[in-house]
């Protein structure tokens, strides 16, 4: 059995490596689109062109979408094997971080810890999210605690180990995320802009925490490779909306092969699906959580 597992794993690695290392121009394009649309949405709302409810929904959607470039930058998936373009990888991470209010400098440390100790209570910082399904109050409190964790993780765990330059970058990111919002509220000076910034952010932030971090790891009981997360398959009627998830419903592919860019998840999943099934990777309905047949 162990020999079969090793052989299957090697086959999966061979497939995944074909999709690693490229310069991820689609991620750079996504970064530009998200940042441009985010600024345009605020400008159109302030100008009175876009109503509050629509601007809030767009703000929430862009908050969610901003996390994928941040996540890809964290894994160095934007420059890939092109070391000379690392500056562009980091630039993408830094420019979207203020949208979702997760410092790039801190998230890199937190997220790598999550990968190293996935689903291990007391070690995986994301494990706290297992309470998110315990009712409405737990959903709210756990989500807020998770946002706070994302912002303070570097300070709480590595402050004594990082350089002065890294500390300044981290503090600068937090200061910028907060200050541009305060400046915008002071400039526009209406309750509507305050409501937009708060409601839009939390709608997008909770959507991200729920679908990107909580649901893929349920029921938080297995820490084994191939089984510590899942692939969530959407029903046929939902396929037109699947692109909005940016591939993150196939979270098993990311945890198996973190250097595969998000827009390659589906291709890798199709090729190694028999291996995933043989290794008992949960391949389940995104809502039902029942096993999905091949």
Layout of secondary structure:
Elements: H1 2-17, H2 25-46, H3 52-74, H4 86-100, H5 104-116, H6 136-158, H7 164-188, H8 191-214, E1 231-233, H9 251-256, H10 265-278, E2 283-285
Parallel strand pairs: 1-2
Sheet having the most strands: 2 strands, parallel
Percentage of residues in DSSP E strands: under 5%
Helix content: 55-70%
Average pLDDT, to the nearest integer? Answer: 96
User: Which geometry do the CA atoms define?
Assistant: globular
What's the structural domain tally?
Answer: 1
Give structural notes.
The protein is mainly alpha-helical and 294 residues long. The protein has ten helices and two strands; from the N terminus they run H-H-H-H-H-H-H-H-E-H-H-E. It has a two-stranded parallel sheet. It is globular and about 65 Å long. The two termini are 23 Å apart.
Structure keywords:
294 residues; two-stranded parallel ribbon; 10 helices; 2 strands; 2% strand; globular
Q: What's the quick description here?
A:
This protein has about 290 residues and is mostly helical. It contains 10 helices and 2 strands. Helix 2 (about 25-45) runs parallel beside helix 4 and helix 3 packs antiparallel against helix 4.
């Amino acid at each position: 059995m162990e020999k079969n597992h090793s052989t299957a794993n090697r086959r999966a690695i061979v497939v995944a490596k074909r999709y690693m290392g490229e310069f991820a121009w689609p991620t750079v394009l996504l970064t530009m689109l998200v940042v441009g649309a985010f600024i345009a949405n605020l400008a159109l709302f302030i100008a009175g062109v876009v109503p509050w409810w629509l601007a809030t929904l767009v703000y929430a959607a862009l908050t969610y979408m901003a996390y994928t470039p941040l996540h890809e930058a964290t894994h160095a998936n934007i420059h890939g094997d092109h070391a000379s373009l690392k500056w562009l990888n980091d630039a993408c991470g830094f420019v979207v971080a203020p949208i979702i209010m997760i410092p790039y400098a801190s998230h890199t440390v937190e997220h790598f810890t999550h990968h190293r100790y996935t689903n291990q209570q007391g070690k995986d910082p994301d494990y706290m999210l297992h309470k998110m399904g315990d009712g409405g109050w737990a959903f709210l409190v756990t989500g807020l605690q998770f946002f706070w964790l994302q912002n303070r993780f570097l300070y709480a765990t590595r402050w004594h180990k990082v350089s002065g330059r890294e500390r300044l970058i981290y503090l600068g990111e937090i200061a910028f995320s907060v200050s541009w919002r305060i400046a915008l509220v002071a400039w526009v000076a209406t309750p509507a802009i305050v409501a937009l910034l708060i409601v839009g952010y939390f709608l997008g932030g909770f959507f991200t925490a729920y679908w990107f971090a909580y649901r893929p790891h349920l029921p938080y009981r297995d820490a084994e490779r191939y089984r510590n997360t899942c692939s969530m398959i959407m029903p046929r009627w939902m396929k037109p909306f699947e692109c909005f998830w940016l591939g993150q419903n196939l979270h098993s592919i990311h945890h198996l092969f973190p250097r595969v860019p998000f827009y390659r998840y589906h291709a890798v999943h199709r090729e190694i699906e028999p291996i995933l099934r043989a290794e008992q990777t949960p391949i389940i309905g995104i809502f039902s959580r029942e096993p999905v047949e091949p």
